[in-house]
Fold this sequence. Notes:
The complex is a heterodimer of chains A (174) and B (196). Chain A is α/β, with parallel strands linked by helices and 174 residues long.
Amino acid sequence: MAETSWSDALFDVLVRQDIRQVAYVPDAGHTRLIERCTAYPAMETSVLTTEEEGIALLAGAWLGGDRGILLMQSSGVGNCVNMLSLIENCRMPFVSLITMRGEWGEFNPWQAPMGLATPDVLNRMNVQVHRVDAPADVVVTLDAAIAQSYDGMLASAVLLSQRLIGSKDFEVVD
Amino acid sequence: MTDSLSLLDRRETVACLLRDRGDLLVISGLGSATYDVAAAGDDPRNFYLWGAMGGTVAMALGLALAQPERPVLAITGDGDMLMGMGSLATIGAKRPANLSVVVLDNEVYGETGGQPTAIAHGVDLVTVARGCGLNALDHIRDMNGVGTLAERIHRADGPLFANIKIDAQEYVRVLPARDGVWLRSRFREAVLGLAP
Lengths: 174, 196
Ligand SMILES: Cc1ncc(C[n+]2csc(CCOP(=O)(O)OP(=O)(O)O)c2C)c(N)n1
């Protein structure tokens, strides 16, 4: 699957799952998905100044009846820690789609500390982590994460591994 | 520092803003803002924050986008607003007309012992909000201004920003519920008609 069709498949999951608000700090791996969401009139996309804003924003969205998702890269997880107490205290749904950096063929060592810490940090804040390494698992995993967040009130994050995103199959072809 | 003679009473100010609230939805920031909103009268359409410092305004933004037909008000302190200052840029990019941000500006972190915030050193939130593209009123220093603001909150010509210069005096705390699950469930029941 090329990155376009992979991102398109994720976008289809968001539409099918009735995701109305998409908040993000961009990562290159999310480029196409952000474009699709922004172009879709039934979704409100909000570009954040820092990832923790997205947690509060989506909590407010849910109070108002909207389902949402936070898109970020692994470094952004470090910005979120205390704000995740809002999700835990209120047992609100929360789902994030996270592109991993600093773990596979990374050329920038500044991405490595949070890349390594991301699963532990999320777990410590009671966010379940679903890591995706195989292209075939991308869609089913996001589907499951959204379902368990919004139906089961179990905060969850989908980590798209750097190997997956960076692999040739996922490069932008156009 | 502002001349204390001209500073407003926080409880009177918040009571005025919430008196004829109609279908106003309110998110209050941790610390005194939460106590002030509770003191004005509990309501299931109030969501009181007890933590998540810096998140009040972003939370109100998400709510305003989800409920575009209702006025949404964030009420918070200058310390919380400073921590979440980036959210003003996020609001400026979305410009929801039904959102109002009100800062109860006592120039200190009251909850933690009254240490001066950056505001006490000359930082101006009205200028920041204006630069972010919000409809920012001039600093409010009298109850007439509060009354006018109370009307504008319902007019949906926002995003509105108001910084109210209040007295740093502390009141006996009026403590609303702290159980977040209960608060969010009753809010959604009142606003969306959903059972928990
Ligand atoms: C992330 C985080 N940092 C620090 C605190 C400690 N704290 C609690 S309330 C508060 C001050 C809030 O100040 P302000 O918003 O101006 O409200 P005031 O108490 O003056 O009404 C601080 C620093 C906290 N709860 N969370």
